Amino acid sequence: MKIAFLGPRATFTDIAVRELFPNDEGIPYITIPDCLEAVMKDEVDVCVVPLENALEGSVNITLDYLIHEMKLPIMAEITAPIKQHLLVHPNHQDDWENIEAIYSHSHAIAQCHKFLHHKCKGIPRVSVTSTAAAAKYVRENPQERAAAIANELAAKEYGLAIAKENIHDFDFNHTRFVVLANKPLKLDDQPLEVAGNKTTLMVTLPADDRSGALHQVLSAFAWRKLNLSKIESRPTKTGLGNYFFIIDIEMSMDEVLIPGAIAELEALGCSVDVLGSYPYFQIKKK
Known about the structure:
This protein is of the alpha/beta class. It is 28% helix and 33% strand. The protein has helices spanning 12-20, 32-40, 60-69, 106-111, 113-119, 131-140, 152-158, 213-222, 257-267, and strands at residues 2-6, 25-29, 46-53, 57-58, 74-81, 85-88, 101-104, 125-127, 146-150, 161-164, 174-180, 194-204, 228-235, 243-249, 271-282. It is globular and about 65 Å long.
């Protein structure tokens, strides 16, 4: 298969692709919308994009495009540990404390706030499209006293030196990536073991905005003993105060419980869309 991922090579998304699809061809794209568009145009079979980080929360552009622009079903999910390092050009390895700019993705910069505050105070932080793009920039501009926040694979891919290891604020730093495709995927022969199954719904509350509507929604799952691992509100983009909810159920789509909950929600006047019912995988720390 051809698999689009948020590039360039050696992003955390690239790592997820290599772990889940080691025998397939990964193709880097510059932005998350580019990845989704590649699937819609049949340039690739699958795309893998980040959905949520344990420290920084949801990747809003992924959610917004899935809901409002390109409704691709979720086929699988993979969670990967995130280790951020400070990378510099080998020319500046010995005097990295004199760097004049730090490049990375905005989420990665936020994940390393404590280190940057105490060790790199006053040094400008420049947001780019990905951690690997930051590493690539530092490699291609050795004349600058610049550093990148990125992973170990990026250091190897772009020939950079790791000035400081593990500069992220918290040890439990993980990112969830979703696998999106227009056609069903066979994931039985993947190297990672299935950690569980999920079903993701998008629920829009009734237009009359009556009190207790959200309580009724949650009750439809509670009395059926359906475990919700996540519920998140997102704006519908139709006016202030108008939201829909993304709900993750910790089980695959069945013939009774989840369809029954959906029918109850629709009877209450809610609009319900199934975004996917899929297995999820976890990459273990090394």
